[in-house]
Specification:
The chain has 3 domains: about 110 residues, no CATH class; about 110 residues, no CATH class; about 150 residues, no CATH class. It is built from 14 helices and 8 strands. Strands 1, 4, 5, 6, 7 and 8 form a 6-stranded mixed sheet that branches. It is α/β, with parallel strands linked by helices and about 425 residues long. The chain is about 50% helix and about 15% strand. The C terminus is likely disordered.
């Protein structure tokens, strides 16, 4: 053994303390989460337990999930393993080891109650002086569903397959008129073949109806946006006294498009575009978080691929929070949310909007950083013009810059935390 290094003898017993107080730093996250959850009223969860035997305490299970999520441990099997391997988790469970089935059933069983518990956590954070509503960020990200994008059928393919199967059924019916199945052992079972195809035709019919339904909903949304643009364009032309140049907005067309599709595994999911040009079968997760503390203050999951439609639902959910938490004063959003309507929506809620009007560079040039302050907007400026001015000011750049730095980390944490 080299004398420079301490000797390790793994046969010598390790003396452990009677509890984990001496093994955890006073500011350890596990202590904080235990303290928070102990203040939460879990009586409604506890009433749900009936029958014989004893169950794991709901407060302990909640604390276990909150801590593991915060540490990036989401799988129920990995959480179970953590109850044996991680000292903070052993501290939380008091040496108990709920198995992965118990963990999974708990979070599935009480998923709805988690919404109320989430609000309680915000209220406790407010009382502790950690958090108060003021500046928030809203962001969205495409999350993958538990379904492959290859297990789907498009409108175009459904029509082709439907025509092919109908043709095959007609051929089988004609074949049945001339072939005696009982006399010919090698002949195919025509009734069974027809039944199989008819079942597939019925399924294709269901898929086509769903695609039609979605196409109609999309058309109605696009038509509303088109009408709003044309109205805005007409008002602008009236104000200027002349026709606008350039290409006019194109009116949307009703009906399904060739690539419209439905997934067999998860029919509620949608094909979602991701940055970089890729696509996923999934959902659009929308999150709101406090600008200062990065505490999540709300979320919802949508089937809409376009973030522009999610500002109003986000504000509707924020308005459901208790008044004592405060009021949103400023909101930062990326260019995926940019529209004149969304700017006005935020202003009408007395929220100062900071919505990027285009892609923002992560590394500004020296000339951009040293640029003089922009000219103030005119007295009768629109809400959009005022926002564009604010985004060019030093204060506006700093505020929106914080959003860009924090948003990606926060949304990934939230999506994993809540299993979306």
């Amino acid at each position: 053994m080299n004398k420079k290094f301490r000797e390790i003898n793994r046969e010598v017993p390790i003396i452990l303390p009677k509890n984990f107080e001496g093994w955890l730093d006073e500011n350890d996250l596990s202590r904080f989460i235990v303290e928070i959850v102990e203040q939460i009223d879990t009586s409604e969860l506890e009433k749900e337990y009936k029958g014989r035997g004893t169950a794991f305490p709901p407060k302990m299970m909640l604390t276990l999930l909150f801590y593991c999520y915060a540490k990036g441990i989401f799988s129920s099997r990995k959480i179970e393993r953590a109850t044996y391997e991680l000292i903070p988790v052993l501290y939380i469970t008091g040496g108990l080891h709920p198995d992965h089935d118990t963990i999974n059933k708990f979070r599935q069983r009480f998923l709805k109650q988690f919404i109320f518990i989430f609000t309680m956590v915000l209220e406790i954070a407010f009382k502790l002086g950690i958090f108060k509503l003021g500046d928030i960020s809203i962001d969205g990200s495409k999350i993958t569903a538990n379904a492959s994008k290859h297990k789907a059928m498009s409108w175009d393919y459904a029509n082709k397959l439907e025509a092919m199967l109908q043709s095959e059924v007609e051929k089988l019916l004609k074949e049945a008129e001339v072939v005696n199945n009982k006399a010919n052992k090698d002949a195919i079972d025509i009734p069974a073949e027809i039944e199989r195809r008819e079942k597939r035709l019925a399924k294709i019919g269901e898929i086509k109806e769903e695609i039609k339904k979605r196409a109609q909903a999309r058309y109605e949304n696009e038509k509303a946006e088109y009408d709003a643009k044309m109205k805005e364009r007409a008002a602008f032309e009236t104000e200027r006294g002349r026709k606008l140049g350039g290409r006019k907005p194109v009116a949307p067309e009703p009906g399904p498009r060739p690539k419209d599709q439905v997934n067999f595994t998860d029919c509620d999911s949608r094909i979602m575009p991701k940055s970089g040009g890729d696509f996923v079968q999934g959902y659009n997760a929308q999150d709101r978080f406090d600008h200062q503390t990065m505490i999540i203050v709300g979320q919802h999951v949508t089937q809409n691929t376009n973030d522009k439609q999610e500002v109003k639902p986000a504000l509707a959910e924020l308005n459901k929070l208790p008044e004592e938490l405060g009021k949103v004063e400023r909101a930062a959003l990326d260019n995926g949310y940019f529209s004149d309507d969304n700017v006005n929506t935020l202003v009408n809620e007395d929220i100062e909007p900071y919505i990027a009007t285009g892609r923002q560079s992560h590394n500004q040039s020296l000339e951009e950083r040293l640029a003089e302050q922009p000219e103030a907007p005119p007295k009768e400026a629109t809400a959009l013009e005022e926002m564009q001015y604010r985004l060019k000011t030093e204060e506006g750049k700093e505020f929106y810059g914080k959003d860009k730095a924090r948003c990606g980390t926060s949304i990934r944490y939230y999506q994993r935390s809540y299993g979306v």
